[in-house]
């Protein structure tokens, strides 16, 4: 990678058909050069998949973009004196190249879906498995953004500079989260070779300081080779009120259908519409749809009728569920007969430790998770049905990955959560009485619920540990199904070869008959890390091609090589976000050794019996770490958010001026009103008859603030969380008269510990009109998905006084936010 490329040098991303510049150059050249253009005769595209055209003949698919080709003869001063000429020939995919649907769900462990012995029905996954292949040794990186970077690029996550999630990136080359141009995406490669490309669902590969509508968009789908996108950019999304971007523009798709909207259904609608348009306009052009729902990451939101389907299905609890899943997995043959069920670590809460009421609450949490995943699978089924209706199913390669990592055990108490951002980020504990009283709110609009770590561990049966623990299979091993009726004949077959998320891009390229390009937009490409799965499509016992793979997330280290796995024992439980860090995680962590050839579930540590093998693999890990930008090893997690570790784009800026219509400003780029004093001033004109609506808001129901007019009265509302005792409001007694006014709130923070309270004072035209205490404020993070908006609110409201978008009905001239010392 060049130094310029590493520092984020920007090169234009030209479209799939290439540039006509080369054509124009030939056509305008002097007569001696015309003959050279005339001799540049194209070769016929290869009809055989997996055998790209020879280098040097048009099209040269090893360097993208591929310019259009035009054979030019004699050009005279007149049309009559010139040779007849054909239109430029634009690049097309190789003949017979399949359509591709790449699906990946979120936070779904190996033991969740019925297809691999779990309790959750996923009929679409089952249907594709029956008409394709199941993979029971498929591996991810153990965390969201890193897996997605590896899936998109075919490179190891640190090579793609994504060794950690976007929100916790650090400046080191393997961790800064700004994917280099030298690791071009599968979208760029396929678009550059004549595919139509689209992205639906979760992104989480754009650094949080680059996720505003102001761009830059180089790491958005449009900058990664996707012609169309309908996605959300962050870690999670409220499924009933998501912050969606259609291409690069923010949209609020739930407006007008608030009572029935769910993003998974909307996303399927968009994918179906896009595919139908592709085939209606150009039936011979293959499509690539990258389809990544936010389900089943928290919040576990599902339509109420789907939740009702699972009523009482999990009353037996997570400990029994783990045993039931293990027994079913053996019966189905997705794990070997001698596979061992790993014991649950002592730190995990046991089902029998819960009170009867909390058993009801935790059972409801699992009902919501199951409903969300099953509903998501149903929507994926609609997309598959639409492909079938188009007559394209036989020649569509469908890769359906069930989980970007193991299920998430990021619940600190074992009781589950009513809001991940409130409890984990802002350290506001849930109250059992609140959870019991509001049990019916789980899965719905007003909770961001997440289940107990006991349920997560059950969903990762039969393995040890969970999401984030890259050293163990509970974090990395999920399941996968591949269907391609034209090519795969071993319907229902099981493939036991070691496979990894980096294998997907090589598989797609070989299936499409395309080479990995040596350069894209003039940038030389880093070699792929994965290996194609096609050799095993025909042979269940095909040799393993992915023989070595390192793992690392948050200094949880592992190395697989030829059936052996050496790995560290985790220092932190999956739900522990911060704590003492280790100076030398490689040497200070305990190392274990497993013979996975004989021990499918990584259950018997044989390090003491094989010290030489352990040292051999530890050395191999360091070699791989050095080659793949894994170093330095860093076991900090939430601590990485500290200012010294993050870009400070607004450092030294205390005054922010906004105008009406400025929306979707993410927290990293918005005024930081946490743990400080500030003022917010809106200059408005109230129309005759009065006006109301949002002047400024940030966040929403689970944390945020808003200055608005309600029936003409100025109001400042604050939510430290969704709990009733954390909702505050200061309201003026009188409505504003028609005309121009300055509406201001001054917040004087008490100082002291983060999250302390303060006094809010409302002013109209510099005259005080109301004052009130805000006893608690947001200490760390306002929201994971809701934003800073002027003149309207998107997502959820701060309180129930209004509903979104609550656009300002008068004239909003400007809003000024001034940050002040505490």
TrEMBL record:
Keywords: Calcium, Hydrolase, Metal-binding, Signal. Residues 41-62 are annotated as: Disordered. Residues 1-35 form the signal peptide. SUPFAM superfamilies: Alkaline phosphatase-like. Residues 98-513 form the Sulfatase N-terminal domain. GO terms for molecular function: hydrolase activity; metal ion binding. The keyword Signal applies. Pfam families: Sulfatase (PF00884). It comes from the Bacteria. Belongs to the sulfatase family. This is Arylsulfatase A family protein.
């Amino acid at each position: 990678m060049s130094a310029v490329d590493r520092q984020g040098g920007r090169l234009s991303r030209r479209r799939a058909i290439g540039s006509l510049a080369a054509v124009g150059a030939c056509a305008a050249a002097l007569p001696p050069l015309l003959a050279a253009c005339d001799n540049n005769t194209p070769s016929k595209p290869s009809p055989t998949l997996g055998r790209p055209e020879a280098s040097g003949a048009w099209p040269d698919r090893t360097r993208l973009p591929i310019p259009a080709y035009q054979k030019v003869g004699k050009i005279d001063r007149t049309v009559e004196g010139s040779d007849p000429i054909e239109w430029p020939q634009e690049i097309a995919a190789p003949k017979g190249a399949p359509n591709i649907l790449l699906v990946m769900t979120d936070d779904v462990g190996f033991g969740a879906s019925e297809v691999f012995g779990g309790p959750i029905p996923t009929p679409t996954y089952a249907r594709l498995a029956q008409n394709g292949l199941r993979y029971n040794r498929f591996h991810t990186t153990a965390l969201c953004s890193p897996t997605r970077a590896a899936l998109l690029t075919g490179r190891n996550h640190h090579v793609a500079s994504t060794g950690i999630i976007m929100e916790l990136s650090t400046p080191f080359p393997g961790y800064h989260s700004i994917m280099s141009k030298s690791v071009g995406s599968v979208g760029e490669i396929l678009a550059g070779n004549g595919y139509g490309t689209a992205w639906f669902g979760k992104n989480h590969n754009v650094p949080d300081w680059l996720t505003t509508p102001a761009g830059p968009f180089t790491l958005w789908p449009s900058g990664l080779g996707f012609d169309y996108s309908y996605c959300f950019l962050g870690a999670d999304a409220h499924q009933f009120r998501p912050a969606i971007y259609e291409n690069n523009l923010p949209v609020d798709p739930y407006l007008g259908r608030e009572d029935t909207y769910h993003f998974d259904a909307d996303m399927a609608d968009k994918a179906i519409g896009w595919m139908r348009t592709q085939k209606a306009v150009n039936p011979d052009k293959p499509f690539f749809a990258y389809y990544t729902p936010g389900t089943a990451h928290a919040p576990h939101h599902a339509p109420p009728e789907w939740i009702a389907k699972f009523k009482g299905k999990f009353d037996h609890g997570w400990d029994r569920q783990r045993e039931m899943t293990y027994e079913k997995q053996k019966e189905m043959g997705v794990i070997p007969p001698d596979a061992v069920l790993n014991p649950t670590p002592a730190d995990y809460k046991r089902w029998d430790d819960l009170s009867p009421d909390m058993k009801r609450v935790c059972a409801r949490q699992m009902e919501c998770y199951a409903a969300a995943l099953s509903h998501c699978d149903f929507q994926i089924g609609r997309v598959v049905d639409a492909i079938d209706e188009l007559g394209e199913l036989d020649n569509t390669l469908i890769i359906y990955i069930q989980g970007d990592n193991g299920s998430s055990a990021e619940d600190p108490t074992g009781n589950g959560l009513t809001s991940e951002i409130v409890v984990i980020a802002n350290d506001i504990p849930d109250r059992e009485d609140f959870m019991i009283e509001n049990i019916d709110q789980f899965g719905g609009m007003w909770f961001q619920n997440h289940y107990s770590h006991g349920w997560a561990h059950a969903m990762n049966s039969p393995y040890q540990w969970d999401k984030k623990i890259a050293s163990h299979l509970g974090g990395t091993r999920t399941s996968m199904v591949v269907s391609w009726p034209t090519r795969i004949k071993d319907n229902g077959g099981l493939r036991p070869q070691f496979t990894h998320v980096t294998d997907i891009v090589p598989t797609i390229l070989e299936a499409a008959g395309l080479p990995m390009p040596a350069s894209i937009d003039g940038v030389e490409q880093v070699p792929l890390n994965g290996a194609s799965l096609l050799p095993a499509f025909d042979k269940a016992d095909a040799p393993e091609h992915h023989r070595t793979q390192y793992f690392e997330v948050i200094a949880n280290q592992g190395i697989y090589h030829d059936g052996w796995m050496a790995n560290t024992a985790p220092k932190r439980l999956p739900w522990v976000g911060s704590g003492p860090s280790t100076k030398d995680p490689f040497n200070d962590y305990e190392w274990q050794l497993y013979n996975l050839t004989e021990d499918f579930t990584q259950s018997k540590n044989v390090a003491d019996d094989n010290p030489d093998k352990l040292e051999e693999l530890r050395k191999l890990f360091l070699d791989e770490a050095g080659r793949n930008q894994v170093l330095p090893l860093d076991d900090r997690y939430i601590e990485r958010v500290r200012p010294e570790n993050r870009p400070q784009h607004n450092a030294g800026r205390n005054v922010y001026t906004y105008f009406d219509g400025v929306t979707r400003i993410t927290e990293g780029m918005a005024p930081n009103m946490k743990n400080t004093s500030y003022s917010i001033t809106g200059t408005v004109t109230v129309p005759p008859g009065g006006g109301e609506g949002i002047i400024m808001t940030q966040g929403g129901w689970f944390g945020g603030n808003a200055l608005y007019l309600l029936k003409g009265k100025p109001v400042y509302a604050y939510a430290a969380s969704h709990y009733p005792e954390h909702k505050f409001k200061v309201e003026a007694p009188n409505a504003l008269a028609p005309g121009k006014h300055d509406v201001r709130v001054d917040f004087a923070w008490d100082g002291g510990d983060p999250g302390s309270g303060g006094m809010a004072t409302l002013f109209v035209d510099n005259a005080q009109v109301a004052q009130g205490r805000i006893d608690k404020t947001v200490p760390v993070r306002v929201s994971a998905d809701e934003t800073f908006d002027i003149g309207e609110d998107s997502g959820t409201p701060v309180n129930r006084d209004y509903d979104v978008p609550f656009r300002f009905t008068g004239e909003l001239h400007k809003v000024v936010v001034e940050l002040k010392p505490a």
